[in-house]
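Practice problem 4.
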């Protein structure tokens, strides 16, 4: 089973196919993570809210995301979810990412996601595990997402 190579490429008038399944799945999950949710006209549900977190205030001690202007003293919680956590907990961003991967990436099953926010590095580490549908072999992707606050 071969997916499309990302970024999209043309060869002899046809889209180039990715024969390395793991690389293709890695690329697709990274595309899903980096696409802001509700930004795709054909499918507004495609994407993940993580891009919205780049400029928000993350509280490592409370594990939640805030929005507001600290100079005006107005800061409110905008997501009732924890940044760090696993997909087994519905109140985490990891749970939402697992749901998005399950909905859009059909080449893996038994998906599990963990996310860890490290304030010193300003990174959110994401670990995705699952099983490849085509041959039942284990699948794992570890990536990170840089935030700017």
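Answer key:
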């Amino acid at each position: 089973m071969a997916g499309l190579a990302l970024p999209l490429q043309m060869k002899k008038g046809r889209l180039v196919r990715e024969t390395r399944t793991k690389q293709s799945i890695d690329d697709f999950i990274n595309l899903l993570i980096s696409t802001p949710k509700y930004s795709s006209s054909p499918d507004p549900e495609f994407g993940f809210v993580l891009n919205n977190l780049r400029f928000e205030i993350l509280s490592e001690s409370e594990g939640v995301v805030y929005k507001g202007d600290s100079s005006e003293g107005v800061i409110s919680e905008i997501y009732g979810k924890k940044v760090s956590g696993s997909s087994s907990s519905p109140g985490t961003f990891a749970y939402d990412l697992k749901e998005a991967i399950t909905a859009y990436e059909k080449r893996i099953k038994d998906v599990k996601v963990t996310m860890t926010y490290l304030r010193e590095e300003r990174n959110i580490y994401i670990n995705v595990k699952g099983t490849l549908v085509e041959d039942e072999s284990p699948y794992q992707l570890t990536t990170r997402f840089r935030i700017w606050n």
